[in-house]
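== Item description ==
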Amino acid sequence: MKSIKSLLSIIIVLSLFIIGCGNESKEGKEKANQQGEPPQETSKVDKDKEVNEKEVEVQVEPLPSTYSELENKPVGKDSNYIPLSTSEDKEKAVERFKDLPEIKNNPSEKELDYYYQELLKRVQRDFNGPDSLIKQLKFQSFGNPEIEDPRYQFKENLNVEVILDASGSMAQDAGGQTKMKAAKEEITQFVKNLPEGTKVGLRVYGHKGSNADSDKELSCKSSDILYPIDNYDSTKFNQSLDKVKPTGWTPISLALNDAKNDLSSFNGDKNTNIVYLVSDGIETCDQDPVEAAKELYNSDLTPIINVIGFNVDGEGQRQLKDIADETNGIYSNVEDQAGLKTELEKINNIAEAWKKWKEKGEKSIELKEVQNNLEIFNYIAEEESKSLKEKDQINLLIYTLQQKNLMSKESREYIEKKNNEYHSWIDSEINNFNDELKKINQQSYLEAKEALEEKYQINTQ
């Protein structure tokens, strides 16, 4: 009897222990759920959710289908040439693009399309389509009686001011010599070729202190008129330009505000005022250069403000283009001295037309003498060059990434095929432009402008 009681006691204790463990496990799960801890096993609903979240991350946008859409694509932060010839170059490229999506493990076509989309954004070039073309058309038709905007009519005086970036980055190489040396040579040649009677001015900014943080305050206050607007004197001008050394920060806003003072004696009623801003980067002095440019543009000086970006990165190009767009000016990005020369020569052409106008006793020139030339060959060659460089850069990059085992051969071939097809489309659009421009070039300014606006549905009002 005693042994039976002992056995019953053991059974009761074991039962209580098992029940306790069960309750403890249940309470533990409830506590884990209350604290938001994930369950040990993933349900089908959770798995489907994970798949959907992955699909949301890989949103593939359609590629541009018109040149206007292509033109509106923001310039990529890695749009400048990326060398890939040496082992060191390749390692730097891998490091630069390490944040691209991972596609080593059997990616789907959608994932590869997304990869190409993200890579293209990084190297996107500054294509110029119909919008830019109409601005070029207007500028190159300077003095044409059909242009209603008084800014683009010749007046008694022609004044050209160059605002030159002298920040530390202008000491960088650009095609075998520093950007500053190339700029000095081309500016010197440009002012030398201006016709007699043209007044010129030279303002520099960022030329004091250094680009160190300790010198920021000093450098951001540096903007000086080295050659006040006057008739060209080669000795004085060259002496002024020779003094410039690239050293500091980039106070573009300050320079544009000061340019307004430089031109204050040259009211727009009797003066054609042209300002060229030459810079290799963004404003770095915590100001808004777009607002400064708009204030200058809307003043009674009625200047034309064009901007030249000298071997500028993607972020810099976007800001400099905004300055030109907000003042109805032209933005041009040049990569070397030859490109800078081409842009500055456009002012020489306008100055020569102004000289003819003066020689005719300031009478209206016949249309054929100021007929827009559009520079079809240069425009088409520039766009074709951008397409080729962008295509080749992508193909070389993905080949390098394949060599570094960051994608398979199959993935590289898929992306390369997509890249080649896309740039073939760009090339065909450029060829269509070429045909259209040849027709337009035989028309008057108004006919050409209307033809472009109608064909590409542009509102320039």
